[in-house]
Amino acid sequence: MSSHVKINYTRRARLAYLRFFNSRSPQLNIVLGFLVYTLAGWVLLCLPFLHTQPVGWLDNLFVATSAISTTGLAPVSVADSYNWGGELVVLLLIQAGGIGYMTLTTYYLLLTTRRITRWHENIIGAAFTMPDSIELRDFIRSAIVFTVVMELLGTVGFLISFLQADMGFWQAL
Asked: Distance between CA atoms of 159 and 170, rounded to whole angstroms?
């Protein structure tokens, strides 16, 4: 396949993608984004090399949905059913759900493109209710920094408590 054909195919695929999402309401795009994150987590959790024991596809879907929505429910024991890679996938889904997938997506967009399109502004406006005086870029950065700092403080607090309970360092961590 020549590079010209690849470029045209890529351009057509991007235009079809933009047409699809631009024709939807911001609220529907938020739901579709939630669905995409959930399905991506489900597909990853279905990979057999991430399991320590067999886990059904429906259980993997439930774990992925629960993790991204941060409900904390699981039909199987995450620690017993998944290896460190599967646990990492669950952890990343929890992080995406806890910080908010819209916040993460916007942060990634700001890091990579340095600008937000009108379409993104509409979706973000539907996800976050903010006064006009607050700059979106500052809000997103503050949300990410605040979350990371609070999680680090919580990690240190738990680590100290677990170490005082005579746990080994790596088990406490």
From this structure: 9
**Is 1 inside any structural domain?**
no
Convert the pLDDT of each residue in 132-156 to its tens digit.
777 777 777 788 888 889 889 998 9
Long-range CB contacts (within 8 A, 24+) of 143-152: 143/99, 143/100, 143/103, 144/99, 144/103, 144/107, 147/98, 147/99
Q: Using one digit for the tens of pLDDT, what is the confidence trace for 18-52?
A: 677 667 776 777 778 789 889 999 999 999 999 99
Write the CATH number for 42: 1.10.287
Assess whether 159 and 120 both reside in one domain. Answer: no
